[in-house]
Structures
1.
Amino acid sequence: MTTSPLAELSTHVSTLKSRIVQAATLAELLADEPFIVGKRSILSTLQKSLGALAPEDRKAAGAELQEARRGVEETFALRRAELENAARAIALEADRLDLGDVVVAHVTAPLAVGHPGIVAATQRQLEDVFVAMGFTVSDGPEVESDWYNFEALNIPPAHPARGMWDTFYVDLGEPETVVLRTHTSPTQIHLMEEAVAAGTLPIHGVMPGRCFRRDTPDARHLATFHQIEGLVVDRGITFADLAGVIETFTHAYFGADISSRLRPAFFPFTEPSAEFEITCTICRGEGCRTCSQTGWIELGGCGMLDPAVLEAVGVHGDEWSGFAFGFGIDRCAQMRHQIADMRALIDNDVRFLRQFS
Ligand code: DAH
């Protein structure tokens, strides 16, 4: 009588199962797979040998082998699941971001993290420069009454100077009485009114914010833009203080090789008034297309507070004097980063925006 090919089956099964259990890593187990349950396994060899059996024995032997194989495969599947879970836990541990005590996330794909836009970043830098010079920062409403945006600033109704500001009117109240502010100057009025009411003069403040004009956007203008307003009300303030603040700011923000100059101009709320220009940052004063060959770029306006403005808010001109200035934040960003066309600021093209992270 020949020995059954399955005589050693239970020994083979135990050997295979202990090999499975001893595999320490998923890689090790998978590398062994062909030898345990695959074509090169003893179980496959035995399967082939069943062909030599007498047909009447073959069926029972086949069932026995099948049963044994199922047991080995089950052990294999269990161990595989166990090792897969362990591998996943290790990967998650490696990916875990700890921010202090807070476990934030299991990050499996890189996150696109945003950053402040170039105008917001510029505004913050400008605020920092002025805060370092002793100014406080305030903001004011974007929707203003005609009185704050124009009248209190010595621009009466129908005054030709209104043509300097192409205005968006808001459909509220009487026609043309509520506006989207055309400049940050009305915030000066709020600040002075509050200081007079609270008895907290003097004022050394800057007021950044969004402004609106019914302009067609071009390379140097946007219909929605940003300005920063400056206001000093104190005793004995002169034009020399104004010029000094402008020059100090220019060096602090644009660098030692960029200077400022003041040229006579007209604004209804200041007397005398000036235009505030800086050395062209593109050509460093040599003359180029951006500065129309002058070597200078206009940033904004400034001047000594007009007595009519002080009177409108109840500041006594015999005790207090002061100056104001206002200039474009977007223009500063354009000059500092040499952006040829300001409309790039509102195109929302991430390839442009990413350059300023
Ligand atoms: N508000 C003016 C404008 O937008 C700029 C300006 C000029 C502001 C003179 C001032 C100033 O405070 O004194 O055109």
2.
Amino acid sequence: MSNVLIVEDEKHLADGLRFNLEAEGYEVETAADGETALLLLLEEGRSFDVVVLDVMLPGADGFHVAAELRHAGSFVPVLMLTARGRPEDVLRGFESGADDYLPKPFELAVLIARIGALLRRREWLRHDREAAKPAAAAPASKVEDERRGDEPETFSFDGKSIDFSALELRTKGRTLRLTLMEAEFLRHLVRRAGQVVSRKSLLEEVWGLHEDTDTRAIDNFVVRLRKYIEDEPSRPRHLLTVRGVGYRFVAEVESEREF
Ligand code: CA
């Protein structure tokens, strides 16, 4: 049985979710604020399979909670509940370490499907990836649809290796955990290595955002990824900015450019 932690300050919503998720066979705990959630997850070390995390909470908000979890080395899957019409919340959510998002108000069936998708992904990582392909096609995110292709699961460049399935980046002597979205962002660029990829395309294809968004928000995400993959993040050689357009991933580093 899977354990779900619902972090939601609107009691009627939290109770409704608990009721429905329990009916689906989940074990459910609720927390009405971010501090309580962090207490349960980090200090008490309680183990949950998925966290449903509202953004708008009294005190520490959902962004803070997600960032604290990742900072503390907890990679429990996080489904963030964002306000509809605020795409910047979605980007901020992924920046802070969320794995998926759902705008409020949402259909209960969609929430349940997303929780199921996150759990399946977790199982894939835990067990033999090949043997653990899902038997039934559930409404899944684009990310998962893409995972079912025959793409290689790892990509190596410049002494580094990205394992898209295990969500790990291995560099000289160390292994970094990636969030689902960090891995998908890198995969989107790696697939198009050498090509210029627009911010708009990244927003649409990686995050599923179609609204007009301040696309510069993506730059913060890139800053963090550069810390992972670049030897000198302030002088990127792989994840390059194409001014005014977007980004370009280069696997083979050319000889040092003269400035
Ligand atoms: Ca709320």
3.
Amino acid sequence: MTRIAIVTGAARGIGAATALRLARDGHAVAVLDLDEASCSDTVAAITQAGGRAMAVGANVADSGAVQAAVARVTEELGAPTILVNNAGIIRDNLLFKMTEDDWDSVLGVHLRGAFLMSRAVQQHQVEAGWGRIVNLSSTSALGNRGQANYAAAKAGMQGFTKTLAIELGRYGVTANAIAPGFIVTDMTRSTAERVGVPFDDFVAHSVADIPVARAGAPEDIANAAAFFCSEEAGFVSGQVLYVAGGPRA
Ligand code: NAP
């Protein structure tokens, strides 16, 4: 069945791969990112493959922008019942060097963003009696040097997910989280740059600790998201799936 999906942070990386995958599964997809123009490649890839998509520019941490974005999607594509909270940023620093702005921006995009988007979309899911929410956590939720802000946000995503599962289950809505390990995207590229290591060396170093002996690709995460969004996953809710090429936690 065709549903209307919103994927945040879908201009590139994991979000773009997830938007493409959901479109391939037959859903109409709102490709949401900070800058509407940056969504055009993802939208073009979907439409060229015969799918339906629209670009939406919005800051997920801004309540007014979120409400306007969800209203626009509802008007132009239809009432959204699938939401993938993927938008994310990193502002890594050791605790003693971490600024309040580093803390607030990371918590703002990941946690406040997922809260605002989920609150806006649940209304349509409850009305439809069906919905899927997928939140992006991370293996960093278990602790990661230099990421006190990001680890707190990604651990917070897990508690947020479990609570949505409990509150919304009776309306046919499931909520699950994916905790990716090392995935090759602009985010991991910028981490390598920040620590001053050539990206290939950075990848090789990370892969040495991954049991399946390769780095993750955005499609690895998109595949997991597609499962959680499927009709068949209706009895799976409140779970955190580590997609990290090996066991975690
Ligand atoms: P990415 O390549 O940096 O893409 C993130 C996207 O989110 C960018 O297009 C970015 O837009 C957008 N975004 C940032 N702030 C936003 C906001 N306030 N409102 C709307 N969109 C916003 O990152 P990625 O690696 O694909 O990561 C996607 C998600 O997976 C994130 O939640 C990340 O924390 C999580 N994750 C990634 C990894 C990994 O190894 N890559 C591992 C674990 C978890 P701009 O380009 O305009 O900033």
